[in-house]
Every structure is written in structure tokens, then in C-alpha cells.
Amino acid sequence: MKSDFKLIIDTYGADRFKFNQPIKDYTALKLEDLAAVFFIAFNSRELIKIISMCRELGLAYFLFGTGSKMMIPAGFDGLVIKNRTKNIQTISLKGKVTKLGIGVEEALIEVDSGVSVKKFIEYLQSQNLSQAGFLGISGSIGGSLFISNFLQNCVKSIKVLDSDSEIEEISVLNLSAKKHIILSAVFKVKAKN
């Protein structure tokens, strides 16, 4: 066990960590890298807590989602965190009630940053919402939001952990890879035609 990480490991329990862990089974790119210390965050609360602890203790960490657009720096011996947050929820619907029934025109969907775009597309399909534009985007919502113009144009708001470990809601115009870790995003999605 790395002694630098003892407090964090004791907080979560040693069974939640892997040491000198090959990460190829956790990344879309099947990278051959080894993580000196490896942790999977399954919900936003865990993700916020472990990143905040690393920051408070001055410990290096590397965060990734699906691992489709990443490369761990050579010689990195900090904590490697896999973001496997998975919540997707419809938070509002807009539509019309007619003699024929209720017709949904668009929905606001909140998606955790660790959700793969593929899983989000499956959710949209199950809710009879348009997947147009989402098809062909790989990776997680969190990582892809930094680089996909389509996702940026569909997002209504983004919940982030800022560089001071404070949670805030921002617009895509204020999003900065140097200042923010995306926790979730709210997308405006049209109904399927």
C-alpha cells in the first residue's frame, strides 16, 4: 500500500483499491498502462469526496471515464480514478395534450459524467427521444462535453466540481478543462419524429 494514500484508503477501505493495476480492461483503448493506485467511483458523492481528499492532501490523481480519449502520463504514480457514475434521469418534459393523447416535444435529461454516450443513446431510444447527432460520439459524457460541439450545443447546464472543490452549475460557455471536473449535465433533447 502506498503510504501517501493511507488516509484515503482507510476512508474507503482497502478492498475498494487496486495496486499496480493494469487498466486495459477499464479503458476503451485497451491501454497497457499500470495504475499505481486504482479506484472506481460509482456515484457523484464518491467522486467529489475522493477528488476533494486528494486535493486537500496534495496527492496527484488522474480521472477518466470510458478511456477512449486518454493517456496516463509516463511515470505517473498517483491515484487513477475511473468515473463510473451512471445516473440518467428525465427532469422535465414539454409537450401538448390533444384529443389523441399527450405528445412530448422535448425533454430535459440529466446525465452523470461517467455515463457513456452509447448508454445515453440507449436511454434516449427507450424514451422515444431523438438520438440524431449523438450517434458517432464515443466516450463518456464528461470527457466528450469538453470536445464535442454537438454536445455543447445540446447542453442546458453543467454541474461541475471547481478547482476549489466547490460544486457549481455553469453554462457551457464557462466550461474550462483546467478549472472544472464535470459531475453531470442537463441536455435538451427533442422527441423522435
Please describe the topology of this protein.
Layout (H helix, E strand, L loop, with lengths): L5 H7 L4 E6 L11 E8 L2 H14 L3 E4 L14 E5 L4 E11 L2 E12 L4 H10 L14 H5 L3 H6 E7 L5 E4 L10 E10 L3
Parallel strand pairs: 2-4, 3-4
Antiparallel strand pairs: 1-2, 5-6, 6-9, 7-8, 7-9
Account of the 3D structure:
The structure is a single chain. This protein has 193 residues and is α+β, with helices and mostly antiparallel strands. Helix content is 22%, strand content 35%. It has a five-stranded antiparallel beta sheet with strand order 5-6-9-7-8. Strands 1-2-4-3 form a four-stranded mixed beta sheet, with helices on one face. The protein is elongated. 31% of the residues are buried.
Can you describe this structure in just a few lines?
The protein is of the alpha+beta class. It is 22% helix and 35% strand. It has helices at 6-12, 44-57, 117-126, 141-145, 149-154; strands at residues 17-22, 34-41, 61-64, 79-83, 88-98, 101-112, 155-161, 167-170, 181-190.
